[in-house]
Amino acid sequence: MRHELSSFFTEEYYNLTYIKINTINGIHIYVITSNTISLCKMLHHINIRNFRNLEHFETDFNQGITALIGKNGSGKSSLIEAIYFLSIGRSFRATHDRDTINKKIIGTGDFTSIKANVSVNQNLNEIQIILDLNNSNRLKKNCSYNGATLPLSKLIGNLKSVCFSVNDMNIIYGSPSIRRKYINILNLQLDNQYVSELLVYSKIVESRNSLLKQIKNNFSSKVELEYWNNKMVESGTYLIISRYKTINQLSALAESIYPKLFNNYHNGDIRYLCNLDPLNEFIMQNDKDQIYNNFHSKLKQSELRDISLGKTTIGPHRDDLIINIDNNTAENFASRGQARLLVLGMKLAECELIKKLNNIEPIILLDDAFSELDLDNQEYLYKFIFDYNQCLITGLDFRVLENLNFSYNSLNLDQRELNING
């Protein structure tokens, strides 16, 4: 295979120096002077079957910005959703996986499939998720990597992405569970151990809740709680420390982005609200033993209340995020436009954090991110994503890109045609 090397230059990110070859078969290639992983990761091809309204869809992708165009209902948002599904193992729009299955195939024995080819450096890997409704109408989710079956927990992170959609406004205005979901999804892409610890913790809470109900109905003894308390504290302490570390780093990156989005008129900040330690006194000291002991003590104190309610009221499954604008809670004081910029800033900080910690650029997925943004913010967003290897966008205003003299690709979903450097 013949490689054309058009140019090269050096770049520095987070004290690491990369010698970048600008184009090798349309992919950024980096030679790194320290012992790290290359930043080259790219989605090359996707094959979708019966996902939403995409019954049989297949296309290639190119490096850089790709604008998804087409009539309403052509599947632009569905394509963004399918790529995100491969990355995280779930939809950013649907509450249940079955809601993403094309309704025409229900009861026919057909299935839903998303399959993609992703490169890391020059290695091409295949990722696939199949959703299958069997005869009893029970959904099976099968995941594979290069043809080998994997549990979903092992598949997550092989295609790193950051997605912004209109639903993300719920991070500001929605319930704490939505913000916990946000924290979890971010950590799943940053920390391989977090996936397993979260699964273990969730099962422990479920088992403890079941025991609490049995104790309430005099079918079990309160003494049995000690076993689950110890298990819960052990796993939960890891989640607490990981969440605090991640949100602290995310907030620091976002604080450098917000002045540009708000044109220095407003300040935004993000803080992790630990259910056990609202002031983050123990977490800030990075004292694992203190966090562990505090967690265990509060679990013991809440036992009578937990038994009465039949559920566990203490722990990281009750955590939250505090998102502020000008030192006031955004949920109560931010306008809709300000809330959109706050969330957008969080998403851009996500991109930087994934790149910083994993040394791999995420694929950026923007579903109608530019609506309600003024021209200055549109320009800032374009300049930000232009520095990343790959970005897919719906709702693109071509005039802004052309004014900036930026190259881009366009994928017409009506014609199934990819145009390079539109």
Report on this structure:
About 40% of the residues lie in helices and about 25% in strands. The chain has about 425 residues and is an alpha+beta fold. It has a six-stranded antiparallel beta sheet. A hairpin with a 5-residue loop joins strand 8 (about 125-135) and strand 9.
Low-confidence stretches: 1-39
Q: Describe the main β-sheet briefly.
A: 6 strands, antiparallel
What spatial form do the alpha-carbon principal axes imply? globular
Helical fraction equals 25-40%
Could you give the count of β-strands? 18
Taking all Cα atoms into account, the compactness measure Rg is: 23 Å
Number of helices: 13
Overview in brief:
The protein is of the alpha+beta class and 422 residues long.
What structural keywords apply?
single chain, 422 residues, alpha+beta, six-stranded antiparallel sheet, six-stranded mixed sheet, 13 helices, 18 strands, globular
Q: Which helices and strands appear, and what pairs or packs with what?
A:
Layout lengths: L7 E6 L2 E9 L2 E6 L8 E11 L2 E7 L3 E6 L6 H13 L23 E9 L2 E11 L5 E7 L2 E3 L1 H4 L5 E4 L5 H4 L2 H13 L3 H25 L8 H37 L6 E6 L7 H4 L3 H14 L1 H7 L10 E6 L2 E2 H4 L2 H23 L4 E5 L7 H12 L3 E5 L3 H6 L5 E4 L4 E3 L3
Parallel strand pairs: 6-16, 6-17, 11-15, 15-16
Antiparallel strand pairs: 1-2, 2-3, 4-5, 4-7, 7-8, 8-9, 9-10, 12-13, 13-14, 17-18
Helix pairs in contact: 4-6, 5-6, 5-9, 6-8, 6-11
